[in-house]
From TrEMBL:
It comes from Sphingomonas parva. Belongs to the CutA family. It holds the Pfam family CutA1. One of its GO terms (biological process) is response to metal ion. This is Divalent-cation tolerance protein CutA. GO terms for molecular function: copper ion binding.
């Protein structure tokens, strides 16, 4: 399994993308968090703004497809989306994530 972390311009955008990824079976579930503050360098300047962070649980072999689809649905030209492997979980949760993201 893997967790994909991403940030969005708004809570509404995070919800829209999360719903699509779950409906398309690329993610078993998404956790959408409250507003976070992001400070980053962009186009030669320091930027400071609010974003909404989300975590998506998926099968490890679906993480690349999830990130690609997220990028298609995202409003940013360069969305932040990274995958982290899940080293351990409860067996039932792992089965559920893998079942919900199974292709076919």
């Amino acid at each position: 399994m893997a967790t994909v972390y991403a940030t969005f311009a708004s809570h509404e955008e995070a919800e829209r993308v999360a719903r699509a990824l779950v409906e398309e079976r690329l993610a078993a579930c998404a956790n959408i968090f409250g507003t976070c503050r992001s400070i980053y360098r962009w186009e030669g300047r320091i930027a400071d703004g609010e974003e909404t962070a989300a975590l998506f649980k998926t099968a490890a072999d679906r993480a690349d497809a999830l990130i690609a689809r997220l990028a298609e649905l995202h409003s940013y030209d360069l969305p932040a989306a990274v995958a982290w492997p899940i080293a351990a979980s409860t067996p039932g949760f792992a089965k559920w994530v893998l079942d919900e993201t199974a292709q076919g």
